[in-house]
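cron nightly-structures :: item 1 of 1
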Amino acid sequence: MKRVLITGAAGAIGKVLRAAYGGKYRLRLSDIAPLGEAAPGEELMTADVADLAACERLMQGVDCVVHLGAVPVEDAWEKILPANIAGCYNVFEAARRAGVKRVIFASSNHAVGFHRRERFIDNTVQPRPDTRYGVSKVFGEALGRLYADKYGLSVACLRIGTFRNPDRPDNARQLLTWISHRDMVQLVERCIHHPDYHFVVVYGVSNNLRSRWDNTNVKFLGYRPQDDSEIYAAEILAQGKVENEISAQFHGGFFTPMEFSGDTGKID
């Protein structure tokens, strides 16, 4: 059994992965938030990813890291910097020092949020972050590429769409971006188990009829999402909610109008 470290294990995605992977892996679970009681096969460690020495302790004896620990939404730079920038560096560097073979990084669709929504995009598009949070995910993807190319780590970056609890979309944009719990579990598991990849970027999205994200280039991972948001479409669209004029133009949705003072006409 592989020893898998999950940072940010007390968060929404971390809790779902923890429940799904019990018995499949030897889990080392870490967060600054309470993690409850350890189940059989689990090891709990309180650690702040902003602390490099703490990250080094987390990595001992680990085969694969699933790095979820971060500020999960847009916030002030003073909060993004230590958690999402320094913390991400600490995780990759500590993994390298400890000889960890693989890091799975929770990126976000907000790394490419200012691409126009009428376009289908794949994993080759240029970064186009929509927030400081999105910038931190671009940084993490670039850092992952560096650690793959320079140090030989196997790295997967997951541009996660909309992960919800309860497990369903609740507005029109999420009909495009939703990823179900079981599809998230499958995606991360494919990235843990695939025998040989150097560096990959994959969209964390279910098999949604309305999706605008193309995972064709990473079919080799074997990720085959099972769920489709379309079963909720009639109910959601009947609510008649109109999306913000700016947010409706871009993949990043409601993150794009935050603090916006630019000219959408100049965003190609």
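cron nightly-structures :: done
The chain has seven helices and seven strands.
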